[in-house]
Amino acid sequence: MKLLRSLLEKNEEWFKNQILEYVVSHGAESGDVTADWAAFFANLKHGLVDLAPDTPPSTGLHGRFPTLFEQMDMPMFILDDELNLGAMNKAAAMFIGRDLEPGELEYARECFLEPSPPQSCESKSLTDYLPWLAESLRDTRAFGKIGQKIRYDIPVSLEDGERHYTVTVLDMPGTDDDSFGYAVVLDEISFGVEASRKFERERSRADHYLDIVGSMVVALDTSGLVTMINQAGCEVLGYEADELLGREWVDLVIPADQRGDIKEYLYLALSDDMAHGEEITNFVVTKSGAHRLIQWKNRLLTNEKDVPMGILCSGVDITEQQLMEDALAEKELWLRNTFVALGEGVLILSPNREILDANPAAETIFQMTNSELEGLPAGRLHVDGDHYEKFVQKTEAAFEDGRTARFEYVMRRSNGEVFPTEHSISMISGDDGSKLGLVSVIKDISARKRAEKVLSESEEKFRRIFESIEEGYMVTDLDGIINMVNPATCKLLFYDESNLIGKNIDLLYADEGERQQFREVVLEKGAVRGHQIHVSRADGASIVVEANAHLVLDDAGQPMALEGTFRDITNRIEAEKILRDREKQYRAFFENNHAIMLLVDPATDRIVDANPAASEFYGYPLDVLRAMELNEIDALSPEEIFMEMDKAREEGRTYCIHKHRLASGAVRDVEVYSGPISVLGKQLLYSVIHDVTQRISLERKMTKLATIDAMTGVNNRHQFFTLGIRELQRVKRYNSPLTVLMLDIDYFKSVNDTHGHQAGDLVLKMLAASAMSTLRASDIFGRLGGEEFAAILPETGLREGMEVAERLREAFSKLVARVRDAEITFTVSIGVTLVRSTDKTIEEVINRADEALYKAKRMGRNRVEQG
C-alpha cells in the first residue's frame, strides 16, 4: 500500500488527468473532482472516494485503483528494472494480442499492489511481446534513476503500416525510496501525426499558391501588425517580407492623409461591422515613395469561438487601370479606329443576332461589304441552319456559366467556301443587366490549321532535321559518362558514335583544367552559354568549340545529367584575329589620311572617332570631338537633312551636301560620303568629308546669272517659264486656281528717246522693286523682255487677280524717277487671265494674258483688262 501511495504522490498531475478523463467518460461532471482536488486526492490515497457512480462501495483502495488501472483505454504495463512484466491492464493485453486468463486479473492486482511480486507471479519479459518498445525503453537510459518521468514519441512499422505512439514512463518507487519498477503507458497518436503532416503539406501548398497568385495577400492581426504577406505584395511595395512582418501596416504603407480613414475602417472591420467580402480602394506608398492604387477585398479572421483574430486582405494593383478609366472618355474615336483597323474580324450583333456593324477585317473574311453584312442574320454566315443552332447552343451554354464563349467553328464565305475560324463572343449588357447585344470576334485560322496539319505530318521530317543540324549535341551523366550524341558530334570530332557512347568525356578535353572549370560553372549556375573549350579530335587535332550546357533535373529538382550543344569556332577565332590585324591597318590609314574622316554610331548619333584632319578642320581637340554628337556640328535641321538625303537618292548621288559649323562659329558647305563599317564587331557609319564651300558659292552665282535678270534682279524669261510650268502642273494635280498677269510700260520708248537709256533703265528697276514689294512671297514675277513683265499668282482666282493688278497699276503710277533735273512718271497697262482646265501649256496662258494686255492698250492704256 505504501508503494501505491508513493506512486500517486510522485505522479499526481498525470493521475489527475487520467481520472478526469475516466470520470467524464462515465457521465460524471469533471467539476465534482476539480472543485476540491486536494480533498479528493487525499481521500483517494486513503481509499475513501468512489471513482464513478456505478462503482460498488468499498472502504479500501484495493478495489478502486486497480479498477481504474484495468479500465484505462490506453495500454499500461508495470515493469521491473529488467523490463519484466509485473502487470498489465486489459487494453495492454489486447494490444499485444492476447486475453487475460481467469485469475490473471488477480495476479495483476497482486503484482500491482505489493512492493514486490509474490512468488506465484511468473516474470514475463516485455521483449517477448513488444521488442520495439523494449528496445526504445533501453535507449532512454532512464532505468535506475529514481524520481524521473519520461515522455517521448516513437514510430513503429507494423504489418498494417506505420504507427506512431507517445510513450510515458513513470517510475514506481518501493519502500525506502528504492525503485520497484516502472509504469509504461502507450498512447497512439498516428492520426495526429498524419493530420500534422497533412496540415504541413496543405500549409506548404497554400504558401506556394499565395506566392504565385497575382494578387497581393496581406494578413493583419488585431493591432494592425503584418503577420503574413505574399510575394506579389512584396513586389508591389518593393519590400522584402522580413521588412514588413511585424510592422504596423497603416503607418508604414498608407499615405499620411488617408491613415485616419483606414484605421477607422480596420476598427469597424475588427468589430465585425463590415460586410463579407467588402471592397475598398486606397493608395499605398512603396518603399521607393511611389503611390499605387490598390483595390482590396477584406475578410475578418476569427477563431473557433468567432473571436476576431485579424483581417485577411487580398489586393489588386489598379493604378494603371484607373488611369485608363480616367482617359476612357477621350478615347472613343481611338477605339472606333481600332475597331476599323483590327486585324481580326469583329461583328456587332443585336440581341436577336442580326449584324449591326462589321469592321473591314470581317468584310475581308466573309468577302462582303459592310452594307451587305448590315442587317444580315448571323446564321447566314454558317454552313446551314442545324450547324448554326449548335453554334448558338454552345454560346448560350458559355454565357450561362458566366464565361466568354471561345471555341473554333467553321463558317462560310459569300462564295460558298467553308473555312475554320476561332470565335470569341461576349455579351453586351446594360447597367440593369439587360441584354443589349453581342460582340463576335472572328479570326480566320485557315493558315494556322494548314500549318498544324503540316506540322503533325512532319514529325519524322523534324527528327531528321535535328539529326542533321550542324551543331553537336551531347548528354552525359554527372560523372561525365557520355549517354547520347547526334551525328554532328561525330562529324565535328571525327569519332564514331560507338567510340563515344559509354566513354568518359575527359577523352575529348585538351586541357583537364578547362573541363573542371566548365563543370564547376554548370553545377554552380545550372547553365552556361558561350563557353570556349579546347577539344581534341580523334585525329589528334585540337580545335576550339563554343559550348552551351545546362543541368537536367529529375522530378525532385535534383541534378541527374548534363545536356548541351557545341560548335567549332576555330575558323571564327582565326578570322577575328585577321580582323583585328586589319583594324590595326585601318587605324594607321585613318590617323594618317589628310581627308576629313569621322566614325559615327548611327544608334546614338555620337562621334565615336575622328582623325587629326577632322580636328584641324573643325577646330576642336580630338578628345573633345570624340565626345560630341553629330548634331553639334551639323547646322541643318533633322528635316533639312532628311530632305537632302531624299534629294540625293532622286539624283543618284553617293554623297549628301550638309552645312557644318566649326568651333569658330563659321559654317562651311561640305560633301559627306558615308557608308557602314564594322569596327571591333560594332556597326558604325564611316564618313569622308570634303569642304566645298567655295565651289557651292560659285555654283550659286552661276545659278543666279542663269535665272535672274541682270538689270532688275527679278526672274528672267527662262526661269519665269520654268517656274510657270511647275505651277501649271500643280494646278492640274490639285485643281486649284491660278491667275497670270502681263504688264507693259506705256510709252516707254518716249522715256528713252527723251531722257536717255539710263533713265529707261532706272524706270525698269523701280517698277521691278515696287512689284516685288507689293506681291506675295509665293507669287512669281519676271521680266520677259524690254519693258514687258509678267506675274503668276498661285491659289488666286480671277476676281482676286484683278484686284492685285489694280494695286500694281496704282502703285506704279505713284513712282517718280529722278534723272538729273527731270522727274519722270509712268503708267502701265495690265492683262489678266485665269488658267483653264483646257490649258495644256503655260505658253497658252501667257498668250491669253498678252491679248488682254493689248486690249488694255487699245482702250487707252493705264488700265487693267481680263482675257
Describe the structure.
41% of the residues lie in helices and 28% in strands. About 4% of the residues have low confidence. The chain starts with a helix and ends with a strand. The longest helix has 23 residues. By secondary structure, it is of the alpha+beta class. β9 and β10 form a beta hairpin. The chain folds into 6 domains: 165 residues, no CATH class; 130 residues, 2-Layer Sandwich (Beta-Lactamase); 126 residues, PAS domain (Beta-Lactamase), CATH 3.30.450.20; 97 residues, 2-Layer Sandwich (Beta-Lactamase); 124 residues, 2-Layer Sandwich (Beta-Lactamase); 159 residues, Alpha-Beta Plaits, CATH 3.30.70. α30 packs across α31 and α31 packs across α32. The radius of gyration is 52 Å and the shape is elongated. The protein has 33 helices and 33 strands. Strands 3-2-1-6-5-4 form a 6-stranded antiparallel β-sheet, with helices on both faces. A 5-stranded antiparallel β-sheet has the order 8-7-11-10-9, sandwiched between helices. It has a 5-stranded antiparallel β-sheet with strand order 13-12-16-15-14, sandwiched between helices.
Summarize the structure.
It contains 33 helices and 33 strands. The chain has 867 residues and is an alpha+beta fold. It is elongated.
Strand order of the largest sheet: 3-2-1-6-5-4
Which percent range fits the helix content? 40-55%
Give the overall average pLDDT.
Answer: 82
How far apart lie the N and C ends? 150 Å
Q: Which regions contain 5 or more consecutive residues with pLDDT less than 50? A: 47-63, 105-121
Strand content: 25-35%
Number of domains: 6
Oligomer: single chain
Cα shape:
elongated
Radius of gyration: 52 Å
Biggest sheet statistics: 6 strands, antiparallel
> Helical region count?
33
The structure class reads: alpha+beta
